[in-house]
Design a protein that fits this description.
CATH architecture of the largest domain: 3-Layer(aba) Sandwich
Order of helices and strands: HEHEEHHEHEEHEEEHEEEHEEHEE
Structural class: alpha+beta
CATH superfamily of the largest domain: ABC-type transport auxiliary lipoprotein component
Strand order of the largest sheet: 4-1-7-8-9
Largest sheet: 5 strands, mixed
Distance between the termini: 70 Å
CATH class of the largest domain: Alpha Beta
Helix content: 40-55%
Number of helices: 9
Number of strands: 16
Number of domains: 2
């Protein structure tokens, strides 16, 4: 009995350590909150003008936002999550946002990144949390209703949601909101942890698009040692994607789009892996003998990469 107890005590720290691994988070105001408070800007997405939240102006001009993000961040930090400093990340990429949002290749291929894409790529957080709230007038003071949502930074898919209304109070909004969120945070965190456990086991979901320069002499139907180039790429993905998981959603001789490509969370050195890092290995494989195919990589956020085949 004593030996069994000793064994369990020795095992406990490793079990706790394994369960304590948490995703990294970044907290932003929701799109709806930004729209209601007129914190929106526009950027050119391949000729189309798109309205997007202006996070930098929101943090600078809204007195509540910084306090709310700080309060929500403290709740999540107390539960063991690592947080990226949103304001600091915004300052890092401010120059990039003001520069060209679109990179155009020699063949006319355009890859557009929104300000949020740039923020994701800069911060490299696992999950983006968006908070939106509304202040309601009550006889006993004011209450705050909120919507808290978590999105996968790589796919923008919603992975967790929490809503609630704080009890009427005369306190400042961030404190009322903090208590309301605390009451709903347990199931919200459970959903995030389930998502993170899944990607740890099955890999992150990303998108890979293959294109070719117009002046390149080959295409995806060209054969190398009797095998079409598209088949060669598919074989590489089968061997390198986690569980060989990917979906070829569309393909022509000039274009191929692979969705739901599951990539490892980290590379062999333990460094976090994004779509660019994963696709860089494919680029090297195509470049080396016997194929000798040159290419260029472009990215959109953390979870979408493009390989343009041919001479740069």
């Amino acid at each position: 009995m004593k030996r069994l107890l000793f064994f369990l005590l020795m095992l406990a720290p490793s079990v706790v350590w394994g369960q304590s691994k948490k995703p990294t988070l970044m907290i932003l105001p929701s799109d709806n909150w930004c729209e209601q408070r007129y914190f929106m800007s526009r950027y050119n997405d391949q000729g189309t003008i798109v309205s997007v939240p202006d996070y930098q102006t929101a943090f600078r001009d809204d007195g509540e936002l910084g306090l709310v993000v700080s309060k929500i961040g403290q709740i999540l930090t107390d539960r063991g999550y690592s947080l990226k400093d949103t304001e600091q990340e915004l300052k890092k990429i401010a120059k990039d946002i003001t520069e060209d949002a679109v990179t155009v290749s020699k063949s006319g291929t355009a890859i557009a990144e929104s300000p949020l894409d740039l923020l994701k790529r800069s911060s490299k957080s696992d999950i983006i949390i968006q908070i939106g709230w509304k202040v309601n007038s009550e006889k006993k003071g004011k209450s705050v209703s909120f919507v808290l949502e978590a999105f996968d930074s790589y796919t923008s898919k919603r992975i967790a949601t929490a809503t609630g209304i704080g009890k009427p109070s005369s306190e400042i909004v961030p404190r009322i909101l903090s208590r309301a969120v605390t009451d709903q945070i347990a199931p919200f965190c459970k959903q995030m942890d389930a998502f993170y456990s899944d990607i740890q086991e099955n890999g992150r979901e990303t998108i890979l698009t293959i294109r070719r320069w117009e002046d390149w002499e080959y295409d995806l139907e060209s054969e190398f040692d009797g095998v079409e180039l598209l088949e060669i790429i598919q074989e590489w993905l089968s061997e390198n994607a986690v569980g060989g998981a990917f979906n070829l959603s569309d393909a022509t001789e000039n274009y191929a789009r692979f969705e739901q490509v599951r990539i490892p969370v980290a590379n062999g050195k333990g460094v976090a892996l994004d779509a660019r890092g994963f696709v860089s290995e494919l680029r090297k494989y195509l470049r080396d003998a016997p194929l000798g195919i040159p290419s260029k990589i472009m990215t959109k956020g953390l979870g979408e990469a493009y390989i343009i085949l041919g001479d740069q």
